[in-house]
């Protein structure tokens, strides 16, 4: 979207430190690598970077003007210089201006896990009925919110916004500037406990999504007693769990269930995805999507990269779900694999990150969970220092490896053709390299 200088001043309260030609409307760019001649440069400042260092480069590349939060940063080669106290706040204010100018229905989604799946699943359903815009992958922080709003087409009818967080207050900030009509909490779990200290703080952080939910809006949430107790939104609230679905049937590449008298089918597996789908169904109904189009959209949903990505190589079926991992998502995925896939079955598990001072305890508890599974026809392969504690607790055949390369070599030498392998770990473990190594060997 293009802005006039006066429009920017009105929205952000910017002060002109230098002015020349002010007529016209201009795009705003935060990256000199993508800046086009005639754009306004908006430098962002973070812990490890400062876009103000690139103001001169932006002018040389053709920026007509720029923002600054440093009054001494004046380059008179620019037609105008806009001073604001904080360039990120100005960016957010302009993003909110776009949100209200285009005025789509906004659905905001957060949760310890499943938020990207729900975002993609819901967007696919909504696209059947509305011009839909969504956050790109990983665009779930303040800058990502701005990028999503700035790229939103003028004809957008529904915007689906993913909200991530690492500390208290972050989701409240995102909620403030996107003003959701519908807020979705997929679940709360141990993800980011290292930063937030305990589960109570995680629940509080996720519940911040309702801080700027419109009074006539709706909260849709996983049915969790901790969420129920913490939510301070006085408006309409809907809670769901897998127990609200009937006739759940889970098979390879298929999950069928009945909800509210209607049959639905997914081409992905797991009870956790039934819960994801229930959140999507409710949001779509609120927005007026016909039942047949909800059914069609859910059936067409495909997982994105490294989320339940199935590869067939060297006679092996490999399920790569290694985009992220926390104790709750580990349990959900392992339960699904063990209930659906037959022997020979190998659970290839890596370290779970950001679990704080209790990280050893969480890994030990995962081993104890494996002992309680009904189907114990699997062998356990673990990679990383923390996963040794899974092996210690698990009463099954287990092997621990220091590197993904060592694990891949073992798989090639010892896993017979026809085996199924689940790869599950936090992103920093780079488990996709296991597949790459297997294909090389």
Query: What is the CATH domain class of the largest domain?
Result: Alpha Beta
Task: Write the CATH architecture name of the largest domain.
Answer: 3-Layer(aba) Sandwich
Fourth-tier CATH superfamily name of the largest domain: Mur-like, catalytic domain
Percent of residues in beta strands: 15-25%
Mean pLDDT rating: 95
Distance between the termini: 50 Å
CATH topology of the largest domain: UDP-N-acetylmuramoyl-L-alanine:D-glutamate ligase
Using only CA atoms, what is the Rg? 24 Å
Helix content: 25-40%
Enumerate the spans where pLDDT stays under 50 for 5 or more consecutive residues: none
Assembly classification: single chain
Write up what this structure looks like.
By secondary structure, this protein is α/β, with parallel strands linked by helices. The chain has three domains: 83 residues, MurE/MurF, N-terminal domain (Udp-n-acetylmuramoylalanyl-d-glutamate--2,6- Diaminopimelate Ligase, Chain: A, domain 1, 3-Layer(aba) Sandwich), CATH 3.40.1390; 198 residues, UDP-N-acetylmuramoyl-L-alanine:D-glutamate ligase (3-Layer(aba) Sandwich), CATH 3.40.1190.10; 132 residues, Mur ligase, C-terminal domain (Protein-Tyrosine Phosphatase, Chain A, Alpha-Beta Complex). The protein is built from 16 helices and 22 strands. Helix 9 links the parallel strand 12 and strand 13. Helix 4 packs across helix 10, helix 4 packs across helix 11 and helix 15 packs across helix 16. The N and C termini lie far apart (50 Å).
Brief characterization of the structure:
This protein has helices at 5-12, 55-60, 87-102, 115-126, 142-150, 170-178, 193-196, 199-207, 225-230, 271-286, 291-300, 327-340, 359-372, 388-393, 404-414, 432-440; strands spanning 3-4, 15-19, 25-26, 28-29, 40-41, 65-68, 80-83, 105-110, 132-134, 158-162, 182-185, 218-222, 236-240, 246-251, 254-259, 262-266, 309-313, 316-320, 345-350, 379-383, 398-401, 420-424. The chain is 36% helix and 22% strand. It is globular and about 75 Å long.
């Amino acid at each position: 979207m293009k802005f006039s200088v006066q429009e920017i001043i009105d929205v952000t309260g910017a002060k002109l430190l230098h002015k020349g030609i002010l007529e016209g409307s201009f795009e705003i760019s935060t990256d000199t690598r993508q800046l086009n001649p005639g754009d306004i440069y908006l430098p962002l400042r973070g812990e490890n970077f400062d876009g103000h260092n690139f103001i001169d480069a932006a002018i040389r590349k053709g920026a007509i003007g720029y923002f600054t939060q440093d009054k001494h940063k004046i380059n008179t080669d620019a037609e105008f210089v806009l001073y604001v106290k904080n360039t990120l706040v100005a960016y957010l204010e302009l993003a909110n201006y776009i949100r209200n100018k285009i005025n789509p229905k906004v659905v905001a989604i957060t949760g310890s896990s499943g938020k990207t799946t729900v975002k993609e699943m819901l967007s696919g359903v909504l696209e059947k009925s509305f011009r839909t815009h969504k956050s790109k992958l990983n665009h779930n922080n303040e800058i990502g919110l701005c990028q999503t709003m700035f790229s939103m087409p003028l004809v957008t009818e529904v915007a689906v916004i993913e909200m991530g967080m690492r500390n208290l207050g972050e989701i409240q900030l995102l909620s403030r500037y996107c003003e959701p009509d519908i807020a979705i909490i997929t679940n709360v779990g141990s993800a980011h406990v290292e930063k937030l200290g305990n589960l109570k703080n995680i629940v509080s952080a996720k519940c911040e999504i309702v801080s700027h939910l419109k009074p006539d809006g709706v909260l849709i949430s996983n049915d969790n007693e901790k969420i129920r107790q913490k939510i301070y939104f006085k408006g309409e609230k809907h809670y769901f769990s897998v127990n609200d679905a009937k006739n759940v049937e889970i098979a390879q590449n298929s999950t069928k269930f009945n909800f509210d008298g209607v049959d639905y089918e997914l081409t992905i597996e797991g009870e956790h995805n039934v819960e994801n789908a229930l959140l999507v169904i409710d949001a779509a109904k609120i927005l007026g999507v016909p039942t047949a189009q909800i059914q069609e959209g859910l059936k067409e949903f495909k997982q994105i990269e490294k989320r339940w990505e199935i590869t067939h190589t060297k006679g092996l079926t490999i399920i790569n779900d290694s985009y992220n991992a926390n104790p709750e998502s580990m349990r959900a995925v392992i339960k699904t694999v063990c209930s659906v896939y037959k022997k020979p079955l190998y659970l290839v598990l890596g370290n779970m990150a950001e679990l704080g001072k209790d990280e050893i305890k969480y890994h030990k508890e995962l081993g104890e969970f494996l002992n309680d599974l009904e189907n114990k026809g699997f062998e356990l392969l673990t990679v990383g220092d923390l996963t040794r504690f899974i092996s210690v607790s698990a009463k099954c055949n287990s092997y621990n490896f220091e590197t993904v390369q060592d694990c891949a070599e073992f798989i090639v030498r010892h896993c017979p053709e026809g085996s199924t392998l689940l790869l599950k770990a936090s992103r920093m473990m780079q488990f996709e390299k296991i597949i790459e190594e297997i294909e090389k060997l």
